[in-house]
Amino acid sequence: MYILRPLILIIFFSQPLWAKIKSIEISVSSSSYSPKSGALTLEEKLQNNIFSTDLSVKEIQFLDNYKASISYSQNTADYSRYLIYDQTATNSVSLAGHLSESNISVDHIMNTEFGIIEIITASNFGTTPLRKSNISVAYLKKINSTNVFGVTIATQKQNVPQNYFQNPNNSLNPEARATELDTNSIDINFEHIFTEKYKNRFELSSGQRVQDRPIRYGLSLKNLYVLNDAMAARFDLGYLTENRSDKLKTDLGYQTSGWLETKLIHSINTYFNYGVGYAAEINQEYRPWSNSTEQLGNDQILLDLNYDASTWNLNFSSALVKYNTGQMGSNLKVGLGWNL
Prior knowledge:
Helices cover 4% and strands 66% of the residues. It is mainly beta.
């Protein structure tokens, strides 16, 4: 299952040593009760207390038409809310308090006469029981001066500890959850420049975690409008839902998510810019066995600061989150980079 990790290392380190590195970046991030992308339960969304240290070597130019970036991160996450149930599906223990994991990923970008091809391979390793590997292949084609078409295909394999649940679709009988999870997805996007000041990007996506989730469909619209030489505004909308014609396989109902984000970006001078914004997200779970819907929503205040000098750059981003459950959360990231 985890052949991607050695493959990453072989592909990357077999390249010529004279390759040119454009930049190196070190970043530190911390999140507390921040929504976890792709989370499928309230429990998953609230376990995402993560402290991460990242080291990235960016845009290593191997050939005129090929460059790559490699990233390594060390994460510590709180999984005390990740419960492991026995075969009766009534007795549980916490998976762990804090778990550490190492992650490595390599991003390959190739410019061809037919368009740009990007391949990202990633894997984690260490003592974590939540092992995963993934690969994505993206194709980007500039149709003309105002239109760009792109498509991304991705797959992920993940191992999780053995766990049991009471199936509400089967008289609450205890059943085993899948321990190997395969997730496949496809994303199609189209970017159009309407004027010198306005462009947008439209995305359609579909995917499924095969062993335990229905097929999901999503769409999003991202807009950028230039106000003047120093200011621009962003406004993004998105929606994701699962196919309710597919049979449920676990004790989790059908998921629906919607979100919006707006941000004002201001360049103070050539070196310094900042962004302030607001985001909102609503996640719903429809449970057909009880004909009920549970809703988890949040509001976020966003702030970005960036200083980009000729030989180094410093960036800071933050999100202050408030949930409809009354809980507060935050997401902070600080990065320092050197241009070589």
